[in-house]
Structure formats: C-alpha cells, structure tokens
C-alpha cells in the first residue's frame, strides 16, 4: 500500500469507494457507533461538514461494533439513526472492523501511519485511560483503535497528519481542519 489514495472502502450499499475520489480534499476518517457515550460527536461532525464541505472537506464514517457492542444495528438501521437524530449528510460506509484479523485495509493503513499517543489529561481522557487499563494493562503499547470515534485527519495531499482519540474536544479538531482548508 503506497498511499491513502490507493485504498478503498465499501459503502453501506456494498459499492466500492476509492479514496482517490477524495484527492485534493481534507478528510476525517472516523469509526463510529450509535450507542456510545461519544455518539453526540455526530452533531459536531455534521456541523463541521456543513461549515467546510464546500471548501473541500469530507468525512468518511465507518460504523464499528467492536467496542462493547455499541453499534449493533444493520447498516440501514445505523444510517437511519444518524440521519434522523443528527441529520448527517456525510458518506457512511459499511459497518466494519477496525482492529484484529478482519480489520479493513483503510484502518490498518491509518494505524500504521498514526499510532496511539494517549487520551490526554482532560477528565474524559483520564477516565478512558483508567477504563482501558482494566481491560488491558498494556493497551498503550499498540496502535490499535481504542474506542469509538477515533478520528484520523488526512490533508489535501493524502498525508495522515493527525490522530485524535474520542476524548479530544471537537472544536480543537474543527480548528485544525479549518486551518488545513
């Protein structure tokens, strides 16, 4: 795999979407869930999409059920939830694994480019760190996605420039996106 633009992902209808279709855009790739404490991030993601889409911004939403069974629905049910509750308009992909032997190539690539660097010192970050330590005391030692709403930021040239854990304030991510546009 040479570049982000060589990758593909399946949309919720089973169509192959090439990342090369997004060349020249600033992109957020995010693994999402409908029943998570971070699910309200959909509101902020949609706001970013509305604010920046016309300037060359895209969001690639990949629902994932690997974290505490928090995205149990079908692709159609997840899409309906997101559009009805958060009025999401950005592309939603087929539910997929982001870790383990069945992880889709998109997330294997992203994790290779930007590993886990911690949850930060904010209160939510401290809580997430403590929680994950109960599941795996060595959770910091690998690049795996740790929870729903991990976000990767790709610049206009296809470089993975940042990884944000779900504890990052969405307004901080929006500011970086705006600067890249």
Automatic annotation (TrEMBL):
GO MF: peroxidase activity
Annotated Gene3D superfamilies: Glutaredoxin
Annotated keywords: Oxidoreductase, Peroxidase
GO biological process assignments: cellular response to oxidative stress
Source taxon at top rank: Bacteria
Domain Thioredoxin, residue spans: 1-181
Active-site positions on this chain: 36
Matches recorded under PROSITE patterns: GLUTATHIONE_PEROXID_1, GLUTATHIONE_PEROXID_3, THIOREDOXIN_2
InterPro entries: Glutathione_peroxidase, GPX_AS, Thioredoxin-like_sf, Thioredoxin_domain
Similarity annotation: Belongs to the glutathione peroxidase family.
PANTHER family hit by this protein: GLUTATHIONE PEROXIDASE
Protein name, UniProt field: Glutathione peroxidase
Organism: Eubacterium ruminantium
